[in-house]
Amino acid sequence: MAARAMWTGSLAFGLVQIPVSLYGAEERDELSFTQLDRHDLSPIGYDRVNKRTGKKVAWGDIVRGYEYERGEYVVLSDEELKQANVEATHTIDMVAFVRGSELDPMYIERPLYVVPAKNGAKAHRLLVETLERTGRVGIGQVVLRTRQHLGAIVPRDGRLVLLLLRYAHELAPPKGVEEPARGGKKGAAPSAAERRMAEQLVEWLAADWDPRSYEDTYFDDVMALVKKKVASGRPGAIVHPRVAKAKASAKVVDLASLLEKSLAQSKHGKGSKTPPRRPRHAA
Which of 260, 275, 252, 273 lies closest to 125 in space, CA to CA? Predict the structure, then answer.
């Protein structure tokens, strides 16, 4: 079964627009447990209940509301959210190219594959090769669902990957976290011998980075426990409770011409853009 795109729009740098789609680049191996009632081991559901009437609400009767004042809501439809800023919801606009070495891992949330449409293959390849040669990554913003994300466009194995980033204000400062002691009895400076042995230990454990050599041993152990209980055949090992049943229109035209115009605008200070800023929140 073919993967389904989670977003379709354009990747823009200068006047060049590449029609692209975003696909998930991770498969989470999380242990998923179902909550059961210990009396009859029936699954516990999450009911959609009207808090005032106590009655269940059908999916078709649920709308999205923003609480702008306590107890007062503004109802917004999916279409209204898209129309609020059409360009933002359909474009990843790169406003800066920074050195890849400057990208702090603290800001990285998760990766997404950037897949070009057929008519964007040439521009996609040009951008990949340019980023590889310059050692830079593109910084821009993209709206996914109802939230705008900061992102970095990076080259990887001949393709582009979008790394969703945290905004600066989303990183919590180390308030309340005890500072490492640097002096006195608690923070006595390491001796020369201790430093030398620590460096030797690091060098002894040095290796080339290969993520495939690391496995989720906890997940494997828990699944082994599950299989062991299933195979035991003991009463109660397995229970059987009764349960009631936008598409972008961007087209790539004369690539060289668009690049020349973009460079001309940059040199004359036209069309310059400010770096992404923290979005304003309603008071």
Answer: 252
Instruction: Work out the burial of residue 103: count CB atoms within 10 Å of its CB; fewer than 13 is exposed, 13-18 middle, 19 or more buried.
Output: middle
Contact present, 69 and 282 (Cβ < 8 Å)? no
Tokens of 14: 């200068």
Could you give the CA distance from residue 152 to residue 138 in angstroms, rounded to a whole number?
5
Could you tell me where the beta strands, DSSP code E, fall in 117-196?
Answer: 136-144, 147-156, 159-165
Q: 180 exposed, middle or buried (CB, 10 Å; 0-12, 13-18, 19+)?
A: exposed
What is the widest separation between alpha-carbon atoms in the chain? 79
Mean pLDDT on 256-266: 81
- Mean pLDDT within 164-192: 77
C-alpha distances in angstroms, 132 versus 60, 94, 158?
48, 16, 9
Q: Which is higher by pLDDT, 230 or 114?
A: 114
Buried b or exposed e, range 30-63, using 16+ CB within 10 angstroms: eeeeeeeeeeeeeeeeeeeeeeeeeeeeeeeeee
Report which of 58, 90, 62 is spatially closest to residue 76, judged by C-alpha positions.
62
Q: How far apart are CA 127 and CA 13, in angstroms?
A: 9
The helix/strand/coil state of 137 is strand
Residues in the chain: 283
Per-residue pLDDT, 281: 44
Residue 181, pLDDT above cutoff 70: no
